[in-house]
Structure formats: C-alpha cells, structure tokens
Amino acid sequence: EMGDLARLWLAIHEVPVEGAPRARGIADGAGRLLDRLPHVLQRYADWARESAPACRPMAEALALAGVRAEAAAVELRRLPVRELYCRSDARFSNVIARPDGRLAMVDWEDCGVADPAQFVADLRTAPNQEDLISEEAWRAFSETYLAALTPADPDLTRRISLYELLIPMLWLGWMAERILADAE
Fold it and tell me: In sequence order, what DSSP letters do the residues of 35-101 get, joined into one string?
C-alpha cells in the first residue's frame, strides 16, 4: 500500500498552487520554535544541571543536538525549494481504504502549498508513526515518490533528510519548553 500512497501523494501535488493556502508546518509556528531551538535546549540543559541532576546527561546531549539542528536549519533554508500542493498531517489515521481498495485521505484543514520534503519526512518521523514504516515499506513509498519528483527537484532528497532531523528536534524543543514552563 505504500506505493499506492506515494501515487496518491503525487496526485495531490497536481493541485494548482496559485491561490491555494499555505500548508501549516515548519514555515509557521514550528519555524519560530526552530529559530530559538538551540536557546531552548541550552536553557533546559542549564535547568537540568541545577534542578534535575539525573536529567543532566540527556540535557547536555539535547543542547549539542540543538546546535546541530541549527546548522541543519541554516542548510535547509539555503536550498532551493519547488513548492507544491502538499498533504500535511500525514498520519496513517488520516488514510482510509475505500470499499474498492483505493486509498483516500481525510482531515485536510492543514494542507496547502509548501515544501513536499517536510511532509515526506513527517510521514516517517512523526510521533506514533515512526515505528509503523518498515524499511521495505519506506522503499516502496520513496522509490515511487522520489522517481517522480527528483528530476524537477534535485535537492528534494537532501531536504527530506534535513527535515527528518529537524522534526523530532522540534518535538523535543516543545517538550523542553513545557518542562521549563512547569518548572517556573
């Protein structure tokens, strides 16, 4: 079914982008967190050093990961992007099988024009999703998807890998902010 899902995503990309809304994602609220992520994770490490010594090793590792995420974000912003109409909120709970066996999708309010690399990475790395895609299933999706888009978007694969790093880091940043707010 992952090959079928890739073909469905490719069909969604055929929606004209002119006049379409922006997709919600890293470009809006998450993007603002991405800009302050190294600072948030360093604040968490500083807090853990004083208030939660048992958390210190992980907090120090997160602070270092925040610096690496910042470098990835800088690289990502420098790469050219071919924006398409995209399916966001790519959880499998939003994919349904029709009675005739064709795949369909529900929950469209976050969809719109964006970098498709972000949502491909989200498909693979989102919480409660990352352990649902075997390497074989991922290959079935990515081979079909990338074969269709990479000729017109040669940086797509690199952007996907950068988003695969940044999306989990954003979740960690949100959790660290919550812990710091609760601690205050």
Answer: HHHHHHHHHHHHHHHHH-GGGHHHHHHHHHHHHHHHHHHHHHHHS----EEE--S--GGGEEE-TTS
